[in-house]
Structures are given as C-alpha cells and as structure tokens.
Write a structure and sequence with these properties.
α5 links the parallel β4 and β5. The model has no long low-confidence stretch (mean pLDDT 94). The two termini are 20 Å apart. The protein has a single domain, classed as Alpha-Beta Barrel (TIM Barrel), CATH 3.20.20.70. The strands form 2 sheets. Strands 1-9-8-6-5-4-3-2 form an 8-stranded parallel sheet. A 3-stranded antiparallel sheet has the order 7-11-10, with no helix packed on it. With 313 residues, the chain is α/β, with parallel strands linked by helices. It has 14 helices and 11 strands. It is globular and about 50 Å long.
C-alpha cells in the first residue's frame, strides 16, 4: 500500500497512531510501528526527563520509524525540542501553536515535520511554514479541538483543494471503512486516536479504557470553548461544567472549576467522576480492548477488502 505517506514516513501502511496525552507512551508507539503503522509518543503529558525515558524505551522496542507529538502550548517546549534533536527522532507532529516557530529548526536536523490543523486557513499557514504534511482534524475528534466545529468529512475535501503537501485525515476514524472513506475524500493517510486508547498497550488507566468501550452515541460533547475546546465523555465533572454554564460564567470561573491535572486524573489515574475523560465521538464504535497490532491488522484488512469491492464495482 505505497503512497505519499508511506514513502514520507518509510512505513508499510498509511496509518498513524495519534500522540494523545496520557495515552501514548512508548509501549503503544512501538507496538503500532512494529505492526506497520506509525507510532507516536505523546509528549504533551511528559516532562523532559519522562520523554527521554520513553524515547529510549521505544528505540529498544522497535527498529521501525516512530515519531513524537509536540503540543506547542505546553511548558518545557525548548527542552523537549532539544531532546528530539539530540535523539534524532525522524518524525515530529506539532500542534496547538504556530508551525513557523519550530519547523525550520527541526527540518535543519533532517526531521520530517507534520502539523495538525482544524481549518483550511491553518492548513495553508502550515504549508507556508514548510511542513512536510498536514493533519486535518475534524471536531469529531477527542481531546482539544477546533472552535469552528467543522466535521472531518467536510474539512478534508476543502483542505485537499488548497494544499500541495500530503494530507492526513483525523477525527471520527476507527476502522477500515472510515479509513477508506477518508482516502476517497482526498486523504493520503489517516491518524487514529480513540481506537488506540482502548488498546492493551495504551498508557490510559484500565477504568478509562472500560468507559470508552461502554460509550454510546451521544456520550461525548465538545465543551469549554472559552478556554480550549475539548471533547469529553459525560461524567460528574462534565455535569458540573454544564451546571456552571447556566450562570453565564466568566473565563475565570471556568478556569477555577477546571483546576489543574484533570486530564491526568481522568485518563491516567482512572478518576471517572472528577477527571477529564477525553475521547472522540467514534467511541461508540469501540467495543473491545485489543492489542495494538490486532487493531492495525483489522483496520487494514477491512480497508483492503472494501477497497477491492469498490474497484470491482
């Protein structure tokens, strides 16, 4: 299955595991890379020394390419970039910031740079900044998201129409059927997050994984747009936010309620009541916790089967 993305990343399948905070450690990244996709370590929830440890362990666990996701709004960004350069990480996915900030510097060291966007406007800015590929992520996705609520399958063809660099689709994709649909709409590959949360190798707490498996249609909502839009599973904390909204709260009041480390409490520590439980709408399609390699295999097998039928028709 060779195309622009497999050639760019030197991987077997155009399937990328998203670099999700508190979910994407070295075990998941190496498992996905070993299965033929591109595994990503999520640096957003890691101090520099923790990232260093995960990179070292990932290198020991796979000889295949893997990458690091760097949300640029997080602290210690300079130290994280220095570690990535020192360790000769081949691929970096940047997000939540201006792609011009670090792209040129990373590329000077031979690093392939990909930037995550939620609009055509920012896709063009990323291309102008010199990135090697763009991830267009619709608002179906879990975690922090675009403010415009543009869906993945609306966003994809609009971005495809405007950019020259390879395009990766993200948001609402969890199986081979979704992967094929995204690629028919113009994507060269897909980035999948939520499905890999419910993998055996994910660093998410087992209780959170079980909540993902239990989730049904309508169990998530995009909230806290006044701070940073985030899609969450509904729980006690979610209810507290919605109750506060009834009072027309200020940003300060929302910030006070949010507090610190809620995402860690929810996803990593398993506090299903008071923590942030970030997951995509596609959780309703996730019914079982499986090894990452099995997930990759199932997605690619379904993609190939359906694609063959489409060609015949």
């Amino acid at each position: 299955m060779e195309n622009r993305i497999t050639k760019l990343f030197k991987i077997q399948y155009p399937l990328i595991q998203a670099g999700m905070i508190w979910n994407s450690g070295w075990k998941l990244a190496s498992a996905v890379s070993n299965a033929g996709g591109l595994g990503i370590i999520g640096a957003g929830s890691m101090y520099p020394d923790v990232l260093q440890e995960h990179i070292t362990k990932c290198k020991a666990a796979t000889l295949k390419p893997f990458g690091v996701n760097v949300p640029m709004l997080y602290p210690n960004i300079e130290e994280i970039i220095e570690i990535i350069i020192k360790e000769k990480i081949p691929i970096v996915f940047t997000s939540a910031g201006n792609p011009k900030t670090h792209t040129a510097r990373l590329k000077q060291h031979g690093i392939t740079v990909v930037h995550v966007v939620s609009s055509v406007k920012f896709a063009l800015k990323a291309q102008d900044a010199g990135v090697d590929a763009v991830v267009a992520e619709g608002f179906e996705a879990g975690g922090h998201n675009g403010r415009d609520e543009t869906t993945t399958f609306t966003l994809l063809p609009m971005v495809k129409e405007q950019i020259r660099v390879p395009l990766i689709a993200a948001g609402g994709i969890a199986n081979g059927r979704g992967m094929l649909a995204a690629m028919i709409l113009g994507a060269d590959g897909v980035q999948i997050g939520s499905r890999f949360v419910a993998s055996q190798e994910s660093s998410a707490h087992q209780a959170f994984k079980q909540e993902v498996v239990k989730a049904k249609e309508g169990d998530t909502l995009l909230i806290l747009k006044e701070l940073a839009p985030v899609r969450l599973l509904k729980n006690k904390f979610f209810d507290q936010v919605m109750e506060l909204y009834k009072t027309n709260p200020s940003k300060e009041q929302l910030t006070e309620l949010l507090g610190r480390a809620r995402a860690k409490r929810g996803m990593f520590e398993g506090d299903l009541k008071e923590g942030e439980l970030e997951i995509g709408q596609v959780a309703g399609l996730i019914h079982q916790i499986k090894p990452a390699a099995e997930i990759v295999s199932e997605i690619i097998e379904e993609f190939n089967t359906l694609n063959a039928l489409r060609v015949v028709i």
